[in-house]
Amino acid sequence: MRWRDMRQSDNVEDRRGMGGGFGGGGFRPSGMGGLGGLGLGGILIVVLISWLFGVNPMSLLDPGSGVEQAPTQSGPTGAPADDPGHFASAVLGDTEDFWTAYFRNAGSSYPKPTLVLFTDATESACGTGSTAVGPFYCPGDHKLYIDLSFFRQLDQQFGAPGDFAQAYVIAHEVGHHVQTLLGLLGRGNAMSRSQANAISVQQELQADCLAGMWGRSASTRNLLDTGDVEEGLRAAAAIGDDRLQRASQGRVVPESFTHGSSEQRVAAVRAGLSSTDLSGCGIRSR
After folding, report:
1. Residue 118: how many CB atoms within 10 A of its CB?
2. Per residue in 81-121, pLDDT tens?
3. Cα gap 49→97, rounded to integer Å
4. Helices marked H in the chain — which ranges?
5. Does the reported pTM lie above 0.85?
6. SS3 of 82, please?
7. CA distance 146 to 136
8. Fewer CB under 10 Å: which end of the chain, C or N?
């Protein structure tokens, strides 16, 4: 992937290495009850749930836990040339250019999200976030949060290496920002767990599709190398609910899916890669 040819975004907060002590209260998914007294298997399930929902697992195991807000700084300006923050900033910058042009052509504007780079744990308007929960987007502050060590995990634990696999992760979270701007995110309150899960799956697959739309644009501008698309599809398959559940609890429970199966996620990215309009992702023009 020719990410060095992309414009780096100015909308990056670099909180790496700033840390933060545990205090305050963290976010808990609606309807989650107390989780005290869990065995090892239960803890593994909690970690999986927290990763899927973008929640610090400590806030599920101990509702009184959280992290203090760390001071922020702009970045990764001044970081070494091989700093992965430059890659993340470049991908974000290119998504900004793509979605700004798309919204402009539709007669609207695109307020840009902020990418927060952190180490171990940080605070967001949606509660605490940690390395364990993986990348997430918070509609409350229009920020994307990622500990860049997740990219190493994506390679070594999930078997999805490659820079476009990493770019897909960022573009997926940007997809949630697009959904927020279009008023498509945040539904599911006052519903049963199964209904809320079904809506969550729809929203996550839609974000995958939106990531694919950006990927198509990058491809038409000759920013992708041979094999890049396959890297992205491999990453989508690696983080399907069925694969994650099988790895964490040894069985698959489709009614508990919140992001979609590996097959569904791959299909959603493919749909985006062949779409030039939001309708290809099931979004009506507004």
Report:
1. 26
2. 678 899 999 999 999 999 999 999 999 999 999 999 999 99
3. 33
4. 40-53, 57-61, 84-105, 149-156, 163-181, 193-220, 228-238, 241-249, 262-273
5. no
6. coil
7. 7
8. C
